[in-house]
Amino acid sequence: MRDVAVVIGVGGMGRVVARRLGPGRRLALADFNGEALTAFSEELGGEGHDVTAVRLDVSDPDAVAGFAASAAALGAVKQIVHTAGLSPVQATAPAVLAVDLLGVAYVLEEFGKVIDSGGSGVVIASMSGHMGSPIASEDEALLACTPARELAGLSLLEPSRHPDAGTAYAFAKRANHLRVRAESVAWGRRGARINSISPGIISTSMGRAELAGSSGAFMRAMVDGSGSARIGTPDDIAAAVDYLLSPAASFVTGTDLLVDGGVVGALTTGQIALA
Fold it and tell me: Which structural domain, as residue segments, surrounds residue 36?
């Protein structure tokens, strides 16, 4: 039986990642958009890939648990890449928290129960997690270690604490970093690794929507002032995923890799002039 690679989210990044992981493996794909999921899985199947597709709402913990179990039934789950998420221009603050924060926690916890020895995983977070308002250390501990199904009850997630989708997004992505740190211990007990990647501004449909939105000028100024001075591509992120999933990263777990073209470096050292 072939090993299983799981990709959650079949948007721009997820599609490129799935194509890289697919050869020689069974692919288990999931996405909330059933139409896009079916079209992509049929495309891959027509090219000879072994694909199983499941429509999934990552904000539903029971659905996530069921998907993890069904993926494990296909064979040894060796790789999982979680790319699903909502951006500030796509949803309200509560929806962003439900998908980007709670959804990631559910996936990490449930797949931490089925990941095979020698396996590895990557969560796609965001450079926004490095740029939001500071979080008190005691609150960081709660975000990192509270059982996933209890997270929604934390006062930290109350709507009054997140007045807009942008602040909710940065908070959720910081929580992703913390959650990956904590879950790396549980994954390690199974002989597996888990890390996150924080992309910068990437030319996906989500990234282009953000660039066209109210924060577009701010984002373009960050790109122009960065070391690379360009927008990233899904292939840039997939290359980083390749590394973190590979044996070359066997001593890398519980950490976040910034793949942002140098935006955070330039911004935090005062080298980007923003109005």
Answer: 4-260
